[in-house]
Amino acid sequence: MPTFPFLKQEMRRKGSMSGSVLVSTFVGLIINQAKNSKSAQGLVGLKNLGNTCFMNSILQCLSNTQSLRDYCLHNSHRRDLNNNSRTNTALMEEFAKLIQTMWTSSSSEAVSPSEFKTQIQRYAPRFVGYNQQDAQEFLRFLLDGLHNEVNRVTVRPRGTVEDFDHLPDEEKGKKMWSKYLEREDSKIVDLFVGQLKSSLTCSHCGFCSTVFDPFWDLSLPIAKKGYGEVSLMDCMRLFTKEDVLDGDEKPTCYRCKARRRCTKKFTIQKFPKILVLRILCFGQQNVTLLVNCPFKHVFCRLAVNAVYNLYAVSNHSGTTMGGHYTAYCRNPSSGEWYTFNDSRVTPMSSSQVRSSDAYVLFYELSPSQKPLSMHCKLNSGPDHAFPSSSSSLCDLLVCLKPLKLRRRSLFNFFSCFLSSRFSALNSCW
Ligand SMILES: [Zn+2]
């Protein structure tokens, strides 16, 4: 049987299809073998190398991120590796190797992530040693490192200052996003990066300036002080709530050319496939706040409709200095939930996922629910979500299916859809 090091060399030659097929088949074979064995795939613990529970917790969350797991299992990352120099791809290689081991191991014995740790330390020296670290910071460094090694952009274009301020917000957001992709474009970006819109409105002249920024995760403040239950939706609402900037915080209005009292507001312009939410406790570590995590659906009625399903949680208990991290993850193959506590993996019921220790939450955009960006008023009935003019007919049908419209409404719906498609054309005539 061919071994991995041999195939690895094969794969280094770009476009070596036979190598890639071989590796996929090889991995496929092992997966099937593991399937037949008693241990379910992916249910492998990670050895604690000394205060590395923060790393293990995040690695388990990422291991249960289906698209990322498949990217590693199918060796798709090898196509994207920037193989300008060997040392520039070691983090992605080690990460993929670890995921492959976790998903193909036929024994249920915990795996040691020490080789991986060596590489993350090389990339981010702050992780050298065995101090307790912040799981979310670790996630940021890791995703950034992986992204850099599989960035499809090898030569970044020279930065040019383009002004999109004259464009409508929707257009401006799109332009800013494509400018971002000109520099940062990878599988990691495909999955984890969204776009945040912040608008600043002057209370004096009403001028509104908008800024679009990519985000890799969102930090949500706890919507409640003291003890008690708080829903994630409340935290989301607090995050997107209009905020007044006054006093020392007064920004300079572009039109007034003076410092004015302004209102600031965040909205999500582009929803990422994987939404990572970090729960901010504002240094209230001694106060236990129960974050009620609706694990089935989160309806984000912000700018558009999006449905996210929770699939992984990194939990933190104790204080920042001396705490412990664990993970709750839904196995993408079986759909069952498990607790990952370093080397231990135990089944859990989905109702236990509601946790007071939830620190980093991983949500996956529901595949049947693509974000919709236009609303259409139907003659009979309330407002219904309506696909944008760039949506396919398939999207439209998905959107229509649950509505059970009468024939008359259906006609209105389609004419509305068609007119949106042709409005651009009309304006040319
Ligand atoms: Zn103003």
TrEMBL record:
Residues 44-366 form the USP domain. CDD domains: Peptidase_C19R (cd02674). It comes from the Eukaryota. It is found in: Cytoplasm, Perinuclear region. It is an enzyme of class 3 (hydrolase). One of its GO terms (molecular function) is cysteine-type deubiquitinase activity. Its EC number is 3.4.19.12. Keywords: Biological rhythms, Cytoplasm, Hydrolase, Metal-binding, Protease, Thiol protease, Ubl conjugation pathway, Zinc. It catalyses: Thiol-dependent hydrolysis of ester, thioester, amide, peptide and isopeptide bonds formed by the C-terminal Gly of ubiquitin (a 76-residue protein attached to proteins as an intracellular targeting signal). This is Ubiquitin carboxyl-terminal hydrolase. The gene is USP2.
